[in-house]
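Protocol step 4 of 6: structure prediction from sequence.
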Amino acid sequence: MKIRSILLPLAALLLSGAAQAAPPASPAAKAATRNCHLPGTEDTLRCLAVQVPLDYARPGGPGIKIHVTVAPAFREAARTDPLFVLAGGPGQAGSEVLPLLSAAFRRVRATRDIVFIDQRGTGLSGKLDCESRPEHETMSDAELEAEVRACIAKSRAPFGAYTTAAAARDLEEVRKTLGYGKVNVWGGSYGTRLGQAYARAFPDSVRTLVLDGVAAPDQVIPAGGRDGTAALDKLFAQCAANAACKGAYPNLRAEFDALVKRTEAGIKLSIADPRTAAPVTFTMTGQRFLGTVHNILYSPADARRLPFLLHSAYNGRWEPFIARHNIAGDFASDGSSAMLLHLAVVCAEDVPRMTPELIKEDNALLTRPLAERIPSLCKDMKVPAVPYAAPAKIAAPALLLSGALDPVTPPRRAERAAEFMSNARHLVVANAGHGVSQLGCAPRLLREFLDKPTENLNAKCLAEIPAPTFQLGSAGPQP
């Protein structure tokens, strides 16, 4: 559930039964698809645009084209039940996570089509975004907020049409257009919310669910202070328990606390730009600092670099931290999340549930700027609130994957989601963060689950995924 860097200073600061053999050609091969090549893979894929109503209450009104990317199964005798892939955010597009083909889905693709869907308002489905410029990195927080508000005011998109429920209906139109029967659904992060919504709205269309980094139905995205704090505390404890890390950074927590105080007051930095080596001057604020720390915690390999980054910054050498901050919001990337789509969803579905009690209970350093600023931006978005409805039970077999070190969707969120499922199994990986499907033996387990979703799954191999080593100096992580 990440959002991209113009909001980083503001926000993240902001299946029952086995499948049957299919004919040689999959249903997607018969649809009006075309050959396409997209970033993230060298494979020749199949692409199409599915026309859907912008507002399903007005089927004869304006429409929107949903971009779909199909990676055909390798075997000619492909199974009839494909895997639909739903990216995270909200704001990330399916066409932006194509590297998962060779990472998480390489075994699944042997016998199934993999279908990547760009949610309405993302990627190639009418992306709702703002112009990004390199100078954003040196703007003040107030200037950045003004940029976001100006972008909102300039947009003519009907933000109220970009809900999770509408996106779920789009998935059904994609399924019917491609000629599939029941489908399997993989969702990551926010994609798990969308996947659950689809399974509840169209239960007869979903064979299985694979949910990685599970969002609970009642989870409020901006209210993640408890989870972020827990992940940071675990990192500090792991460093203290590691002789080499403790020796290199004996006062890590105290240094972090000191940096929080310094950045809250604002630190004016004059450094060589890590990208260009040109002199650059800007202010490191608490929002920028905490947003970057939170972002780093998503990946354990990244998090194991954080002690080095914090220690360097504490001693006045900010260049490594700034370089990592820039990676989080690389303005040269075309695959950044759709900011206005993120706001459209969160402002309609999450912010209305941010009660004073929840804000008080979830108050924490890492997410406090998000909780304080997003509601103000939502006033500019002017989207109608989506009433929260008690979730219905999901009958389809579901495989839930959690990383014990996840700062946004830790295991407790999946456990809560499982309460509303009739047939769910939950696997927790001790040394994983936000995202499990591509790690270790997980790709094999995905294939085994999809082939036989009602049988037992031996997942002991997940315990073999090692913890990354800590970075102790400029040369990088330990061997």
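Step 5 (inspection) to follow. Confidence is low (pLDDT under 50) at residues 3-25, 330-334.
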